[in-house]
């Protein structure tokens, strides 16, 4: 299958686009429409470039919805590999009248893959008044939306351990900014690493094309898990592999070429995995260039 991300050229057509896509899928169940809440994209999966082209042309010609299309955004994330302790974030500003003051000390530690984000506090003696602690957490969450590599940060624990306040100048906003400064200071020193989504891919193909398929998967950073005969299909194989989401987008093109149009595949998200070396450098550089 091949995927594209689409959006209405005119904001006023957003509702019409959703209705038109529902009708297209009702008429052609081989189309799949996914609304990605993380990237805020509408992703359409089809059987190939021609299939998607016909579908998008129908949106314009039949339903009167002009669209823009692009490659779907890959849901990269980043995490950390080592703890960083006693990091101070202090926001202090004086500009006449009441100033702004918020001061926090935090510990940042990595969590197992898939754990998400955890915030805790061990404040003693009222170093940070309890009514300001939620604002510190909000500031940390703000900073985690874009980590030092440029992607949302996951799988870490942040603990508020100490700080100070001013009876007049402290506020929710000042402590929110202090929390943001603290985590922004900590992350670059916590050995940030890039994560990418990995999918379990299952390909069905004629047996005489299996060797070609294995070569295609290896060339797309796929980890082949094995293959066996396809149940009920004499002369066909079923190949299973783990493959980065970024490599799946145009897999169908090579697959169809290698199997004279007969092969197909399914995919299912499996996990997030660390990307290292040149592949990570290229992803980070491309993201910065696009920003």
Domains (count): 3
Q: What is the CA–CA distance across the termini? A: 28 Å
Q: What is the correct CATH architecture of the largest domain?
A: 2-Layer Sandwich
Please give the share of residues in helix. Answer: 25-40%
- Predict the CATH topology of the largest domain: Ribosomal Protein S5, domain 2
On the 0 to 100 scale, the average pLDDT is: 92
Give a summary of the structure in a few sentences.
By secondary structure, the chain is an alpha+beta fold.
Give me the secondary-structure topology.
Elements (H helix, E strand, L loop, with lengths): L1 E7 L5 H14 L4 E5 L4 E6 L2 H13 L5 E4 L6 E4 L3 E10 L6 E11 L6 E5 L11 H12 L11 E9 L7 H15 L5 E15 L3 H10 L3 E7 L6 E9 L6 H8 L5 E12 L1 H14 L1
Parallel strand pairs: 8-9
Antiparallel strand pairs: 1-3, 1-4, 2-3, 5-10, 6-7, 7-9, 10-12, 10-13, 11-12
Any descriptors?
single chain, alpha+beta, Ribosomal Protein S5, domain 2, Alpha-Beta Plaits, 3 domains, 13 strands, 36% strand, elongated
Task: Please characterize this protein's 3D structure.
This protein is of the alpha+beta class. The two termini are 28 Å apart. It contains 7 helices and 13 strands. The longest helix has 15 residues, at 172-186. Strand 2 (32-36) and strand 3 form a beta hairpin. The chain has helices spanning 14-27, 49-61, 133-144, 172-186, 210-219, 251-258, 277-290, and strands at 2-8, 32-36, 41-46, 67-70, 77-80, 84-93, 100-110, 117-121, 156-164, 192-206, 223-229, 236-244, 264-275. It has 3 domains: 1-73, Alpha-Beta Plaits (2-Layer Sandwich); 78-190, Ribosomal Protein S5, domain 2; 194-291, 2-Layer Sandwich (Alpha-Beta Plaits), CATH 3.30.70.240. The protein is elongated, with a radius of gyration of 25 Å. The strands form 3 sheets. Strands 5, 10, 11, 12 and 13 form a 5-stranded antiparallel beta sheet that branches. Helix content is 30%, strand content 36%. The mean pLDDT is 92.
């Amino acid at each position: 299958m091949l995927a594209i991300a689409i959006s209405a050229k005119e904001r006023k057509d957003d509702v019409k686009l959703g209705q038109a896509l529902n009708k297209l899928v009702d008429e052609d169940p081989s189309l799949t429409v996914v609304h990605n809440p993380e990237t805020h994209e509408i992703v359409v999966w089809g059987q190939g470039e021609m299939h998607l082209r016909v579908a998008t042309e129908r949106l314009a010609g039949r339903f009167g919805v002009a669209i823009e299309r692009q490659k779907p955004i890959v849901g990269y994330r980043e995490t950390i590999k080592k703890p960083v302790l006693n990091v101070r974030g202090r926001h202090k500003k004086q500009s006449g009248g009441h100033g702004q003051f918020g001061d926090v000390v935090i510990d940042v530690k990595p969590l197992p893959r898939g754990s998400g984000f955890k915030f805790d506090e061990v404040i003693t003696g009222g170093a940070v008044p309890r009514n300001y602690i939620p604002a510190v957490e909000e500031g940390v969450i703000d900073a985690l939306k874009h980590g030092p590599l440029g992607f949302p940060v996951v799988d870490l624990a942040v603990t508020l351990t100490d700080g100070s306040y001013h009876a007049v100048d402290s506020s929710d906003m000042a402590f929110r900014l202090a929390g943001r400064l603290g985590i922004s200071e900590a992350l670059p020193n916590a050995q940030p690493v890039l994560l990418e989504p990995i999918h379990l891919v299952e390909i069905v193909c004629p047996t005489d094309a299996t060797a070609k398929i294995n070569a295609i998967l290896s060339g797309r950073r796929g980890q082949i898990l094995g293959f066996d005969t396809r149940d009920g299909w004499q002369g066909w194989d079923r190949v299973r592999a783990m493959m980065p989401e970024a490599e799946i987008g145009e897999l169908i093109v090579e697959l169809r070429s290698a199997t004279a149009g007969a092969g197909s595949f399914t995919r299912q998200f499996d996990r997030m995995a660390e990307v290292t070396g040149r592949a990570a450098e290229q992803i980070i550089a491309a993201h910065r260039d696009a920003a």
